[in-house]
């Protein structure tokens, strides 16, 4: 049985801080697959995934995630006029 989403986010964060990019990618991908964009931590997980992919030398998935993160972030930010 796999850890709950909150635990996956914590595992991914810890692994990223330790430069264990492979473990970070596994945990954060699992979190993002289970969570919806409205889930707390989802946007942060996407940004951490970009860093983990880049740290792992795999920039193609990192680049692919960037537009998704921007779209999710723009929905949660209300412009101040």
UniProtKB/TrEMBL annotation:
<dbReference type="InterPro" id="IPR011990">
    <property type="entry name" value="TPR-like_helical_dom_sf"/>
</dbReference>
<protein>
    <recommendedName>
        <fullName>Outer membrane lipoprotein BamD-like domain-containing protein</fullName>
    </recommendedName>
</protein>
């Amino acid at each position: 049985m796999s850890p709950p989403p909150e635990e996956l986010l914590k595992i991914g964060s810890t692994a990223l801080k330790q430069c264990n990019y492979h473990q970070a990618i596994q945990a954060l991908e699992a979190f993002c697959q289970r969570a919806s964009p409205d889930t707390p931590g989802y946007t942060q997980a996407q940004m951490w995934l970009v860093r983990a992919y880049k740290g792992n030398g795999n920039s193609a998935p990192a680049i692919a995630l960037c537009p998704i993160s921007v779209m999710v972030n723009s929905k949660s930010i209300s412009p101040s006029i």
